[in-house]
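Course assignment 3, question 2. Fill in each field.
Student: A.L.
Task: Predict the tertiary structure for the chain below.
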Amino acid sequence: MSEKTAETTAAMTKRATMIEVARLADVGAMTVSRVLNGSARVSPETASRVHAAIERLKYRPNEMARALRGAKSKSIGLIVPSLADAFFATCAHSVNMVAQTHGYSMILTASNDSVAKEFSEAEWMLQKHVEGIILCPTPAKVSHLSDPIFHRIPIVAFDRPLQIPQVASVLVENGGGSKRGTQHLIEHGHKRIHFLGDSPNLFTIQRRFDGYRRALSNVGLKAQGCLECNSEELVFNYAKEVLNGKNAPTAFFCGNNRISRYLYRALFHLGLKIPDDVAIVGFDDFDMADMLSPALTVIRQPVETLGRTAAKVLFARLKTNVDEWPKDSSRTTLNVELILRRSCGCKSI
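Answer field:
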């Protein structure tokens, strides 16, 4: 092994420095800095060698270190799973309103529920000197946000928790809400109630299914359903199969508003009437839910308050030193509300 190869291997076992990049590229540290800043004073050949060294050593520019040392940008970052989802759009609006009252701007991006994308977006935000990050985490068992590079800025999770020390999470009463909605269906006399969810890996669906299951267990009833109905086609196929089978369900509890909309459409195409043939309660309200025929009974979660509370927690931490933050992960849980309409069987709503 050559001396330079040995140096390269050693550098890659720890976080690389600009000096190590310069040594590998056979240039000075000032040249590396000029390449990073896009200076025209560096020849294409030299710049190519520097970029190759940066890639090989997985070097992170020093601007990230400057950000972690406390450079004030008056900005925060927000990472959501999807920019097309009305739920996250509402949360983003609430976060931005709080940020503006503090004189801060907000950088918004999406992870698409990809662990790698979430990490790269969060890392990019550090390079932009954000002073804190709010995010709805990807459904991964281990988060890359436990990386030490994130330890010096406050991070707040919302809707789904992050099990990382000193990270605060703002959630809603998922289990209690679904339990309450299922109990309401039981009070209407339903004994065969199926649960529909779109992912068994999502914290929210897991907790909502657990609340539904507990409500049934308390009265000796069996939990049944599908936790992987993540498309309109799958909801239709599942509904068609169980409703045409033996011991067909007389009611459904939908794990989120997307599933509720899919089920309404499926029952329409199957020629079934709500609630005469099948009753429905859904988790999460949405625009026009009260205009459906019949209007949808829901567990309403305080979406605007969820985003606003997450932002308030973040700015409270920005006012304190990192050593004053709780050592363990902390949680704030917001109440939900049962909104009675006609889909559950209530006649006088």
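Instructor remarks: The domain at 67-172+304-318 is CATH 3.40.50.2300 (Rossmann fold). The chain has three domains: 3-59, 67-172+304-318, 174-300.
Grade: pending
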